[in-house]
Amino acid sequence: xxxxxxxxxxxxxxxxxxxxxxxxxxxxxxxxxxxxxxxxxxxxxxxxxxxxxxxxxxxxxxxxxxxxxxxxxxxxxxxxxxxxxxxxxxxxxxxxxxxxxxxxxxxxxxxxxxxxxxxxxxxxxxxxxxxxxxxxxxxxxxxxxxxxxxxxxxxxxxxxxxxxxxxxxxxxxxxxxxxxxxxxxxxxxxxxxxxxxxxxxxxxxxxxxxxxxxxxxxxxxxxxxxxxxxxxxxxxxxxxxxxxxxxxxxxxxxxxxxxxxxxxxxxxxxxxxxxxxxxxxx
Length: 282
Hints:
Layout: E1 2-4, H1 7-19, E2 24-29, H2 35-45, E3 50-55, H3 65-70, H4 75-85, E4 89-91, H5 95-98, H6 117-120, H7 124-139, E5 143-147, H8 151-163, E6 169-173, H9 193-199, H10 201-215, H11 220-233, E7 237-245, E8 258-267, E9 270-279
Parallel strand pairs: 1-4, 2-3, 2-5, 3-4, 5-6
Antiparallel strand pairs: 7-8, 8-9
């Protein structure tokens, strides 16, 4: 496994693989790796000759400086985990490699970024789209792998790739969960022991909403409000709990069948996000 820190070194290795006609899969991360990340890596290994994983805590996607400063950085442990699953390269760029002085270009995706996490975190998705676009240009992968937990982010990246005709296939991997249903996330380490015991209720609220959609006894607005109140009663501070069209995250109507229920809520100071997909056509 190679550990590479500069774009020049990265491009030399990518060129070597391309000359050998080897396919390349890419998993971009911000480190503090958990089993959910490793699931992405395993999926990538099954679909390409070579796998590249990047670790870069991207300052451009944090709307709060404290959040950026406090983001867990566990590079040595991350490298050990990636060695255990047998990837081919770790890309560990510095901020100076990613963001040169006086950078004047930002990638911005409209519409799908305007609500939900985009409304709660202004500029967040511009930071995500810009760094992912730059990493795609550096790594030039055939396929890139993203988790479905960050569904709005996934849709932003799919939209960006389609609009810019980027020659990379985006592969989504289902959310990896703890035994109580809590979606695995690097932010879970910020939860106290008591909060961790409560946190699985976020997924339970999503499951309750999904069941209610199939029952057809309540309107979508009533289902959303019931679940918001449930979360409030369990100590969460919901940012949103919304039933949307899966294709574009617009508000769902009773005529829509391919849905996704999105939620974000704070438990103490930790902001948790999750979603569950619903297919009413089945």
